[in-house]
Amino acid sequence: MDCKRLGATLAFALTLSGCVWAPGQHLRSSALARDDQPVGNDQIELIQITPKLIAMDRASRDVPALPRALTSYHPGQYQIGVGDILYITVWDHPELTVPAGPQQQLNAAGRLVQSDGTLFYPYIGKIPAAGKTPGELRDEITSKLARVIEAPQVDVSMLTYASQRVWVTGASRQAATVPLTVTPLTLGDAISQSGLDPAQADLSGVRLTREGVTYTIDLDRLGRQGGGATNVFLKANDHLYVPYLDRKEIFVVGEVNQPGAMSFKTSDISLSQALGRARGLQQSTSNGNAVYVIRGSSDLQSAPSSVFQLEAKSPAAFAVASQFELLPGDVVFVGAAGVTRWSRFVNQLLPFTSIISNAASARNDLDN
């Protein structure tokens, strides 16, 4: 192969390399849309990361107040239900309190509320119990026992709670049910009692489903604003779902020391934290002005994807990066420096030139 042919091959390869998007030079759309049509520049928006942008972003991400439908609910007194077990004490009458004598176990002395909402008690028979508070049931038993016992003193307490509960599923060691008791149950109480796995749980996207309506609650942010914000009282049959962290990832690629996917437990992670987890930029190969955050759009026809650029050559830029919050699914891309791109291109091209040279030599040998 003569020098002219090799020179033409190099020129053609260099022409092809100029068609590839190289971060740090300029941003050009090269992906394909869902309908296999080229993505135009109007479908990708390049935005500089500045203090003004961060202020606007923070204002749009303020945690909304909890819906009034949740905060306005305050449970009343506990109402007895089917499956509950009650312990009924009649003072000075142990034969009614513990019929089998002192050797009887406490649980065996309990009174079960049957499926029809009633329980049986000596000298009275069946008593409707479901829907009444322990105090209301005590007054009724006292009134009816007064016919056979002079001035009875009765106490009704809950032995086992079984009729009202909430469900907690998702990132817990096992699906759990938390009973409602005479003490009102809050959202924070249910989370803490459910045996949540702290290494897998994403508290920034807890979903509470009540009467067919699902509310998404950022417990992480609310907790940082003050513990009182999480005191949402729960109702019977509420369902809590705590998502897993593996659905909450960002991706750091390009000229960093440790690229890869990263999950985060809190409701947010900053750009500087993401670069820190990736062990920083590669000093010898990275372009400090080519740090991009690529944020896709779910519908390119209605809204463009956003690409945010950080000019990280200045130390002050990392102060800005520490305030820029990433979203799940964001891709942080660090581009290569110009010399690095040229070096890689040459390294990729040399094997091809060797093949071409060998083929040309073989052809010359055949011609001779």
Automatic annotation (TrEMBL):
It is found in: Cell outer membrane. Gene3D superfamilies: Outer membrane lipoprotein wza domain like, wza like domain. PANTHER family: POLYSACCHARIDE EXPORT PROTEIN GFCE-RELATED. It comes from Stenotrophomonas bentonitica. This is Polysaccharide biosynthesis/export family protein. Residues 1-22 form the signal peptide. PROSITE patterns: PROKAR_LIPOPROTEIN. It comes from the Bacteria. It is a multi-pass membrane protein. Residues 164-242, 248-334 form the SLBB domain. Residues 75-158 form the Polysaccharide export protein N-terminal domain. Coiled coil: none annotated. Keywords: Cell outer membrane, Ion transport, Lipoprotein, Membrane, Palmitate, Polysaccharide transport, Porin, Signal, Sugar transport, Transmembrane, Transmembrane beta strand, Transport. Belongs to the BexD/CtrA/VexA family.
